[in-house]
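>> Question from a student workshop board

For tomorrow's exercise we were told to take the sequence and the ligand below, predict the bound structure, and bring the output to class. My setup keeps failing. Could a helper post the expected result so I can at least see what it should look like? The ligand is FE3-S4 cluster.
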Amino acid sequence: MTEPKKLFIKTYGCQMNVYDSERMAEAMGGQGYTQVDSPDDADMILLNTCHIREKAAEKVYSELGRYKGLKAEKPDLKIGVAGCVAQAEGQEIMRRQPLVDLVVGPQSYHRLPELEAKTREGKKALDTDFPEEDKFNHLKSRPKAKRGPTAFLTVQEGCDKFCAFCVVPYTRGAEVSRPSQRVMSEARDLVERGVREITLLGQNVNAYHGHTKGLAGLIRELSTIDGLERIRFTTSHPNDMDDELIAAHGECEKLMPYLHLPVQAGSDKILKRMNRSHTAEEYIRLIERLRNARPDLHMSGDFIVGFPEETEQDFQDTMALIEEVKYGSAFSFKYSERPGTPAAERPQVPENEKDDRLQRLQALLSQQQRDLQDAMVGRDVHVLFEKPGRLEGQMGGKSEYLHAVHVHAPDVQPGDLRRVRIESSSRNSLSGVLLG
Ligand code: SAH
Ligand code: SF4
Ligand code: F3S
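>> Workshop helper replied:
Here is what the output should look like for this input. Compare the format with yours to find the bug.
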């Protein structure tokens, strides 16, 4: 038997890349590769990259630079760039960093085995097509090995929204949904392998139309799978949040009360210039409707500060929106100019102004996050346990609201779902005791 070859994958960016990396590892498994967690003695290194902000893209080149020594020691080592930088920059990557043997975009990684074979012939391999065929249909079915209790499952890809700041519509292409039967069979497979919680992924997951009743229909159908205890989904766009999906938050027990619904800004002027096509008021009304359906819903969001022409008053409107919504968690970023997007051509906000706004915004968001977490003390939650904690006999998992929870529970196994009374709240997690 031949030695398995070693594949090291480093993943940047969003959860969709995490999912794609798993699928790429599985595709390469068929070529005799096993995944390893260090690049040092790998036969192939794949960087699954993100292009969303300038820093994210630059990280890729500094990481590639670090592999010079490895490649000198082991000329057979193949280096590949996958993901959104691959899509955005294509051949340019090989020009800028000649170490790179292979470039593959996010819609064509099912062709990775052929591309790898080409590099073994000493050729460079590039594929950044948006092929007619669906990559998911060309991937082998997933292996049956046991796995942890939580998993991502991509159900929708691409984006037709064209927010003025964003590269995703260019790197991931148009919105496409996977048919619900395929999603159902992949979900059943995951549950057989020990998965208890599935997070449905899509750049605009609530624009899913692979089921006649949309994402809500898919969630209701997934709910019928025995052994699947929890369903989450991310990321949603406010304009695609329909009545069915709002209702599902109140009616579907397996759908968790935590919703990531980015708004980006609270000023109508900025929202318009961002091409978000909704107002701050409409967003707030939408959250009211969601909270009517599910009063304990924890909200999460994304924010951009320093978008071109954002004034202090516009920024204050964002702060006011945050005050009104009260977020359980959030991600916030300084606006980053992305080549080829409309906003990159507009008058920019000075860097120090962006820094200052980001600090003030993050202080408010951290305070809200902390307040909501502290408010869990004394309450009973359900925890899906995932892995042992740092202390002897301790187990860690997540509550329905996605808070990290630690409990002294030597008999609890990963995958167990148990009731817990929360007793204390520290910086990043809650502690409690098992009930029953
Ligand atoms: N499809 C999702 C997520 C897209 S990317 C959505 O619509 O929300 C994740 C986040 O990155 C975005 O929500 C946005 O807050 C941020 N982002 C995207 N482009 C950016 C840019 N040019 N500069 C700064 N942040 C950006
Ligand atoms: Fe980017 Fe906007 Fe599409 Fe989200 S909705 S991926 S922010 S263009
Ligand atoms: Fe980044 Fe591409 Fe995801 S740009 S955020 S990896 S869709």
